[in-house]
Amino acid sequence: MSPRQVILEARALERRFVTARPLFREATVVHAVSGVDLAVEEGETFAIVGESGCGKSTLARVLTRLIPASGGSVRYAGRDLGGLKPAQIRALRREVQFIFQDPFSSLNPRMTVGALIEEPLRIHRIGTGPERRARVAQLLERVGLPAQAAGRYPHEFSGGQRQRIGIARALASGPKVVVGDEPVSALDVSIQAQVVNLLADLKREFGLTLVIIAHDLAVIRHMADRVAVMYLGQIVELAPAADLFEVPRHPYTEALVSAIPLPDPGARRARARVAGELPDPTAPPAGCRFHPRCPYAIGRCRTDAPQLSPRDAGGRQVACHRAEELALAGLGSVAAARSPAARKRFDLYRQARAAQAQTDQPPAEGGPIQQGD
Amino acid sequence: MSQPLLEVQDLAIRIRGTGRNLVDGVSFGVMPGETLCIVGESGCGKSLTALALMGLLASPPLEIAGGKALFQGQDLLGLTRAQFSRLRGDRLAMIFQEPMSALNPALRIGEQIAESVRRHRGASHRAARARALEMLEKVRIPAPETRLDEFPHQLSGGMRQRAMIAMALANDPALIVADEPTTALDVTIQAQILDLMRRLRDEAGTALIMITHDLGVVAEMADKVAVMYAGRVVETGTMAQVFGDPQHPYTIGLMSSMPAFGAGAGRLVTIPGMVPPISAMPPGCRFASRCPFRLPRCEAPPPLVQAGDHQAACWRAPLDALEVTA
């Protein structure tokens, strides 16, 4: 892999949340993001994974300056986002956009879809009125929705279509970086596949850098070039996606990978390699934060917090004292041998889909707009 | 061959006063000790089917429009409310997706489990509490004596799901209906709960109907599979049959849509469009509008027929060629 330009960079990034102080007691402090270093390269798809409460959504919001950092720095294209004034933050939004998990709660229900997609263009004073409306129609078509959708309201659309609207709005100002917080998690499998393909196409077409936050590892494995695994506010492993899943180097990554139920009866069973649950984030364990659940923990892990190692030749980084000596299980040879009958059916289906796309003029890929849904 | 524990025949559910059925002609059987997974996407009718079996359908506006569900010889669809409440939590138990909404927030965990034991078995307070403790130990809740006297909100999501499983199993039911029991959980916790359900099911020989959208969970748990689309069963067979020789275009499309490990990058093969709303549901095959294999014949509803070694509801089954050669 050739070294690419770093477009978004975090150094020793911190974000703390302080609860309102109860009478006579100390306020509780949650270290949602705790000393994160990462560098997103131009043109790549960078994924941040982890379970609920690991701080991945907070990290995404700090990276895009939706919320300020409590410590450390974020640099976009070499510029520190820390000291930006409101007007400068607005200008940043033109280049760094966000897609939310549930577009329904992020789209103003009183605005038409056309106005919603046009809004970023108006804010950034891009184009004249007619130019902007033409651009909206173009964007709608590009995300697989009919042009009439512009006159409708968000509630008239299904979940998958709303996500397409969210994507069109994010793309309107011509951003360089798009950060998606669980952009396909709430969608059904068949709709999810459509949106995953759409994001891949748009990324290529518009030369985007994607940062994807997700908990679904199968989707991540498919979409991402590199993956950062988070646990209790820290990155425990960062590696090219294929390597990470094939041969994890952090025990927590191993636990995540082995817990995935694979849709193949011949494959290995999902195994719960870690006992217990995420500890209280207001009082993270001393030493390595994962040690109370780690099956490989030794004395040192209880007292000594491991640091994320520098990038090795394969571009991998891991924060584990025992990374060198452990041989952890990944998906390895899971490349499941499907039965010949199943393979034949999948081939048939692929051919039929290709033929379908050529011959008939199907309605927009996103499906028709449903009245009064 | 022994008798099926549950036999559902031609189940139909609709909104009162409307024509099209939300669940339409659904049939399946569950043998004692067997696990059936009903898999499908939002709106396919899998949860409605589960609720109908438990007598929990919101009626009105929903109503049973036809069919039978014979459970140990008794038709569940004809039971009165009182008969249902004697059965539920006893021989027939349910596990929900979101335990917080299924557990009583004002009752301690121990009391909730004990109440069901007292009610169905006439056990004494002391015996019921002992049973509650035994169940919490069985589902491996740490410090069970303490947890017994805690309220649901004091437990994490995973622990609440364990408590609900303890409650469901307290009276040794013959059949458990679990509606997306691990969907709301993180993947490592999900693996723990699936482990637990497998172990308890095998120990007690309990039959299980598991409702899920996740083909991964199906591969982990199922003996038999029923794939549902828009209110109908489109394909059914043993797990090995459905995964090894998928026949219905929807099943194949659904499997193709999943990003598979090992397959690597490249575009996913998708199912175009989306499920039509019930008011616009075609009278024939409900998948026809999205199906790349459709024929003029698909305007008539396809029956569930033998396809390969199991059954599919498709005019093209067994699906062997791109073009029809007959």
UniProtKB/TrEMBL annotation, chain A:
Predominant localisation class: membrane
Classification via SMART domains: AAA
Gene Ontology molecular function: ATP binding; ATP hydrolysis activity
Gene Ontology CC annotation, any one: plasma membrane
Pfam families with a match to the protein in the record: ABC_tran, oligo_HPY
Subcellular location: Cell inner membrane
Positions of the UniProt region annotated as Disordered: 350-373
Positions of transmembrane segments: none
Statement: the UniProt record of this protein carries the keyword RNA-binding: no
Domain ABC transporter residue range list: 18-257
Its membrane topology: Peripheral membrane protein
UniProt-listed PROSITE patterns: ABC_TRANSPORTER_1 (PS00211), ABC_TRANSPORTER_2 (PS50893)
KW Nucleotide-binding (keyword) present: yes
CDD domains tied to this protein: ABC_NikE_OppD_transporters
Gene Ontology BP term (one): transmembrane transport
InterPro entries attached to this UniProt entry: AAA+_ATPase (IPR003593), ABC_transp_ATP-bind (IPR050319), ABC_transporter-like_ATP-bd (IPR003439), ABC_transporter-like_CS (IPR017871), Oligopep_ABC_C (IPR013563), P-loop_NTPase (IPR027417)
Keywords: ATP-binding, Nucleotide-binding, Transport
Family statement: Belongs to the ABC transporter superfamily.
UniProt-listed PANTHER family: D,D-DIPEPTIDE TRANSPORT ATP-BINDING PROTEIN DDPF-RELATED, TRANSPORT ATP-BINDING PROTEIN
Protein name: Oligopeptide ABC transporter ATP-binding protein
Annotated source species: Allgaiera indica
From TrEMBL, chain B:
Keyword Transcription: no
PANTHER family linked to this entry: DIPEPTIDE TRANSPORT ATP-BINDING PROTEIN DPPD (PTHR43297:SF2), OLIGOPEPTIDE TRANSPORT ATP-BINDING PROTEIN APPD (PTHR43297)
Membrane topology reported for the UniProt record: Peripheral membrane protein
Stretch forming the signal peptide: none
Annotated PROSITE patterns: ABC_TRANSPORTER_1, ABC_TRANSPORTER_2
Stored SMART domains: AAA
GO biological process: one example: transmembrane transport
Similarity annotation: Belongs to the ABC transporter superfamily.
Identification of the protein by name: ABC transporter ATP-binding protein
Gene Ontology cellular component terms for the protein in this record: plasma membrane
Location(s) in or outside the cell: Cell inner membrane
Organism: Allgaiera indica
Domain ABC transporter: 6-255
Main location, first listed in the record: membrane
Keywords for this protein: ATP-binding, Cell membrane, Membrane, Nucleotide-binding, Transport
InterPro entries linked to this entry: AAA+_ATPase, ABC_Ni/Peptide_Import, ABC_transporter-like_ATP-bd, ABC_transporter-like_CS, Oligopep_ABC_C, P-loop_NTPase
Alphabetized GO MF terms: ATP binding; ATP hydrolysis activity
